[in-house]
Amino acid sequence: MSPELARYLTELSHELHRQIGILVNRSGGITHVIVGDAKGIFIPALEEYPLGRKALRGLRLVHTHLNEEPLTQDDLTDLALLRLDLVAAIGIRNGLPGAISIAYLLPNGLKPYEIIHEESFHNLELDFLPFVRSLDDEMERNRVFSPDDKRERALLVSVSNLSKYEQEDSVEELKELARSSDVLVLDTVIQRLKALNPRYLMGEGKIKELIITALNQGATLLIFDQELSPSQIKAVGELTEMKVVDRSQLILDIFARRAHSRDGKVQVELAQLKYRLPRLTGKGTTMSRLMGGIGGRGPGEMKLEIDRRRVRDRISLLEKELKSLSEARKQRKHRRAATGIPIVSIIGYTNAGKSTLLNALTKSCVFVEDKLFATLDTASRRLRFPREREVVVTDTVGFIRNLPKDLMTAFRATLEELEDADFLLHLVDASNPRFEQHMESVENILRELHLEDKPKIVVFNKTDKIGGEEAKNLAVRYNAVTVSALNPSTLSPLLNAIEEHIWTDKLEAVKV
Length: 512
Hints:
This protein has 14 helices and 16 strands. The longest helix is centred in the middle third of the chain and has 39 residues. Helix 7 packs antiparallel against helix 8 and helix 8 packs antiparallel against helix 11. By secondary structure, the protein is of the alpha/beta class.
């Protein structure tokens, strides 16, 4: 910065009795001139200089301080939240440049920033470009991910009054959901509070500290384990340019990626639109897949109302289509019932191995993957038994606790197919330390669907990952069958149990 420009700024600032600031890019071009008041300046949205793959934004702020006061906490917060190359404050002494203070972020995280203070602007010696390039490089070296990794990078956040164990348990599942959505998890933050802040969940100071931590680590996404209200998403989004999502939106995103059938696509789009309608904040119908961030201000209330009406019309259209698809499903069910072939439905927590078991039982090729909600669309296959007997085995969408209400409503039609099942196979991942909570979640959803009295067999899967003695204990404790869907030789007890439940029970019913 030349002495002439510094003098011009301080003279104007002294005359107006207002702080004046400029934002300068790395080419030396002034991108913004900001006129504030006597106490500070307000930095506008910086859409033209978004945070990208680099650790710093590529803009530096130089502004005046009327009484040669040092950098304020607001200056340092702007430095950290906006990832500026540096912030400088030039004090005014008799209308001319006086003392100067400079702050820049540090890469190692031991302390957040470094402050340089000189009593005279003219004594400062700083070759900016080599300095900032070196700082950028050092920050890149401290990142835990590769610069070539193009995935979203997330900080997971849990703010709740539940016990620490319950929070940790839920966050572990949130990690799996993030992995299923192809998100790189950088870190997790768990905060247990007696009372939640209605605006940010946590206090304003804490949320800013959290955002700065996330930015220091290179995160592009904040994922909250709790469901955020529209006002909370807006409030947090106004503090940061990172995308802000909650557990419900993450699950909806996974479903949108995985739905392939027309039924599934309609149900997911309907759930997404119902979720997003109250959260429309002027983004228009071209809402990003994951909402949030500065720059979301709309062109006006009229445009916003038009967008809302379009979304409502689309919801109405999808609901009609879903009703039509439901009628088609009913016709298929009637035809299936007319054949008299028994129906066995596999249910269970997501990633329990339902599709793998279906493939093993029926020698099919349904898609499987070690991720939550790898398959969403219902698949039905025939399973033949001796004496020309056969059953239809159906694989349903995986269950999960705290399923978004809109998604539960949309998928209720799919899960209604369970009503026609002669009995259910409740598949449980025996190797998961949280299998008891998973079983409870499945039972809760069955109660919501009024299917708790439907005959069922509990089947513990993935017994190859636990000891034989432990598998036997589980079988006795829950009156269950144990299998490893990857090992066909373990399926005989399950096949015998299916045969016994269907034909033996029917014969006894006939005798009675």
